[in-house]
Queue: 2 jobs
Job 1
Amino acid sequence: MLSQSLQDSLNEQIKNEFYSAHVYLSMSSWFDDKGLPGFAKWMRVQYQEELAHGLKIFDFINDRDGRALVLGFDAPPSDWKSPLDVFEDSYSHEQKVTAMINALYAQAQQEPDYATLVLMQWFISEQVEEEKSAKLIVDQLKLAGDSASAILILDRELGARTRGPDSEGDAS
Ligand code: FEO
C-alpha cells in the first residue's frame, strides 16, 4: 500500500499531467487557427499522450489500494507569438515536468517504495523522449526562420504523427 505522502504527490502529478494535456490542446487550437493543421495534429496527439500519462498514474494509485483524485487546475495559456514561441514553451514545460518526475523518484527512493520507483523509471525514459522531440522541433523552426515554405514542409511532416504504443493509458 502507498504511504499517504507518496499518494498525495502522485495525485499532484496526475493533475500536472492533465494540465499538460490542456496546454497541448490549447496549442493545437492555436495552430489550427493559424492554418497549420499538421502542427495542430501533432499537438492533438501530444494531448492524448498526456491524458494517458495521467491515467497511468491514476490506475497505479488505485491498483495499490490507494485513492486517485481528480484535482482542478488553472486554464492553460492560449496565445503565442509564433510557432517557435509555442515549441520553446513546450520544451521548457517538459523540462519542468522532468524535474517533477525526478522529485517523485527521489521521494519513492527515500521511503523506499519499489513499485513507484519502477513506474517512475518509465516516466523518466518518457521524459527523455518528450524533451528530445520538443527540442528537435525548436531547432528545426529556428532553421526555418521566416521561410513560409519551410514551415509548410514541417507542417506536412508533423501531421504524419500518430499515437505511440505507450499512449493508450494502460500501465504496460
Ligand atoms: Fe507527461 Fe509531457 O510529460
Job 2
Amino acid sequence: MSATAYDPNNIFAKILRGDLPAHKVYETDKVLAFMDIMPRADGHVLVIPKTAARNLLDINPDDLADLAKASQFVAKGVKRAMAADGLTIQQFNESAGGQVVFHIHVHILPRWTGVALRPHSGAMENQDVLAKHAATIRSALEAMQAGG
Ligand code: 5GP
C-alpha cells in the first residue's frame, strides 16, 4: 500500500462499519456525523462521508459537495444546540497538515466569545458528557429537518 492509499482499517472506517461505537448525531446514505472523542470544545462534532476517501486530495468532487452540504447543515444544528456565538471549521490533510485519522473529516467546533479552544491534549471526554451533547445536537438537527 502506498503512503497515501486509503486504509480500510482506519478508526472512522470502523465506526462506519459499526465495528467501533460512536455518539452519532446525524446520518444519511452519504454522511455520518458524530461526537469527537477528545473534544477541543464542548459539542465538537466530526462529519465524514460514507465513501472511502483519505482526505481532500483524493475525494471525488461530488462526494466532497455532499460532505460540504452536510457539514453546513450539521454546523447550524451544533451552533443552535450549544448556544454558540460562532463556529470554527477545520479539515486537515496528511500528517504534515495535521491529519491523524486518514478518512476525510470536517471538524465542527462551537465557539463562544472569549473562550479559547482546548489544546489537542489527547484527553478522552467522559462518555456521559458526550452522550448529553449528542442528544442535544440530535434534537436540534431533528427540529431543523422538521422545518423548525
Ligand atoms: P485529525 O485527523 O483531524 O487531526 O484528528 C482526528 C480527530 O479524531 C481528533 O480530533 C480526535 O480527537 C478524533 N478521534 C480520534 N479517535 C477517535 C475515535 O475513536 N472516536 C471518535 N469519535 N473520535 C476520534
